[in-house]
Amino acid sequence: SGSLEETCSLQKNRINMLEQQLAIANEKQKLADASVSLTRTEFEEQKHLLCELQDRLADMEHQLCEGELLRKKLHNTILELKGNIRVFCRVRPLLPDDGGRNEATVIAYPTSTEARG
Which residues form a coiled coil (predicted)? Predict the structure, then answer.
């Protein structure tokens, strides 16, 4: 009877120890679950932020392409206008059919007050 009580007492102690270990393991499991949940939430936030940044990048690249096209168009327009001005301002020498040789050639430039209007 004494050894039976001793065995029973040892088994109760072992059960108590295992229950404590189980409680500790359950607590660790809860902490791990909370950590996983927090990590998932942060991951989803980062994933959402990444998508937003990729969309912004695509928009910026599109704006850059449009800006480059506009810049090229305006540059070509400026070059064309410079050429037109150069042609417009070019002075051609008088040809024999333009008038008599006796006439004096007069080129008059407006004064600064005339140019202002």
Answer: none
Exposed e or buried b for every residue in 43-74, given b needs 16+ CB within 10 A?
A: eeeeeeeeeeeeeeeeeeeeeeeeeeeeeeee
Place of tokens 């080129």: 107
**How far from the centroid of its chain's Cα atoms is residue 75's Cα?**
26
Report how far apart, in Å, the C-alpha atoms of 47 and of each of 28, 39, 54, 61, 106 are. 28, 12, 11, 21, 78
Half-sphere exposure of 33 (CA within 13 A, CB side): 6
Query: The pTM is what?
Result: 0.53
Decide: 76 and 87 in contact? Cβ < 8 Å: no
Confidence (pLDDT) at 91: 74
